[in-house]
Amino acid sequence: MDELKRRLFQGNFLFISLIIIELATVDHTAYTVRLVSDPRSEKYGQHLDRRQVSNLLKASDEATEIVETWLRANNITKFTKSTAGDWVRASVPIRQVEELLQCRYFEFENIRDGTILVRTTEWSLPEHVAPYIDVVQPTNAFFRPKPASRYGGPPPPDWEQEGRLPTYAELVEEDLLDRGHLDVPSLDELPTNPTVDDACNRLAVTPLCMRVLYGTLSYQPQSVATNRMDIVNFLGNNNNRSDIRLYLEKYRPDAAAAGAAESFETVLLAGAEDQQTPNTEEQFDRHMGLEGALDAEAILGIGHPTPLRAWSVGGRPPFKASANKQSNGNEPYMEWLGHVLELEDGELPRVVAVSYADEEQTVPEAYARRVCAAFAQLGARGVSVVVASGDEGAGPEGEGRCVSNDGEGRRRFMPAFPASCPWVTAVGATRHFDPVMAAFDGRSDFVTGGGFSEYFSRPAYQDAAVETYLETIGDLHSGLYNPGGRAIPDVSAQGYHYTIIYNGTAHLLDGTSGSAPTFAAIVALLNDALIAEGRPPLGFLNPWLYSARSGLRDVTHGAATGCNTTGFPAVEGWDAATGLGTPWFPELRDLALARSFRWDHPWYIAA
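The line above is the sequence of tripeptidyl-peptidase II; the predicted structure tokens follow.
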């Protein structure tokens, strides 16, 4: 038995959230996002303000009235709600919540790691209210921190000395070697116009390497006062400023000297904490804060001096167990989205990196659709949402792990969410530089994530690129995936052996959790160039990326393997391993600034 169960004191207060159904206008919202995000539209770049988005996607008056009347009838009169009326929050005594939901709440303590959760194992809503509520939190979702990470080592292998393309087996052999000290170049050691060979060590990737690899090294940001980039922490992660300072001192000394580790803003939601002391041994064993270190260090390493804001979010989402995921390690996206959508327009980020990925089928479909609709609202307001494509390839390796949880037990590939939402930009991971290839690490189970959604249909902006890919691979793995689904990823960036500082020491880390903030940082610099010319930010990226295609370097080596198969191969053009390819900032900047691709005057402001 892994849990100790205790009844709660009935006078304690519990913070509850209700998400009210409002999906009737989602199609209209999607249409609006397409108009302001498609370079072929005369409304391209004419992003909406908060009021307009709230009017686009709001709960019906009937739904709001029924839910509020029900709460008041149960003596819950003090509650807050979102501008759109689709989210209601209240702090209520546990006794009262139990009467409201016909349930009993308990504390569950995990006897292995001491974590404590407040949950009920069953609950219900009155018949007249149930049709109007999508989600109640907290109820029966359980959580354990996700195991994280992979580390990594020595002399040049034969294939490198011979100047030939390595085989998969040779790459795995190199991954498995124990690693000692790894030299990485510093800026003052480089020639005036450094090459990738000058700046990079393929076994330990640094911000300097990335800035040369993606062409941002010589760019001087001009719009620092009016630009912003955000990251989001879940699952107990935070951003330790001491670690970030050490990292910047070593790999981005100009950012360290400017106080970037101390000056970024932190916002805590839903009981999240901002621990700035070193981890305990138990926290270190659970890798607490590891994801937060990677996210902050990756985005600051490239995006500085763009101002950074970090959100740390507590709470737990609804969850549907699968053969591969028995306990809830998913993220409560709506806890964060409900707050960020309430921000005034000037407080919104221009780009946000979300470096988390869940097995799509473990996210209840109704909740996934609500989260995706909220991402669409951010896109309509001019925010680029950049997410990780996942770290398990086409699905996890191992017998019986790639099985549907719909009661039919079908063998299926396992796409990731929120990457499967069509209103975000999903970023896969690559490794090495000549050639660049789809990332994996033979030392671990890491493979860059790719595939096709089971929930969301393929958006029009992907049709041409994805149809070409499907014709190329033919019947490969037919029946294991949904060829009509939203395809993942959209783009990719380095995600192998990323250097980080965590708990005061250096580590090498793999994952799309590194590639997502890397790509987001490049978007932040693109927005900087646009803002400097008085232009709107990029907003929802995908229609622009798929229509342009220039500015992205195709990746044709490797595959998103998984589920004991060869998975999805990288090929010429878009593919389900590396998307459209990796960014080249100078071309993307020129494309973003090309007036034929932008419509400068917001349609909702009188000329």
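Note on the example: The domain at 173-597 is CATH 3.40.50.200 (Rossmann fold). The longest strand covers residues 13-20.
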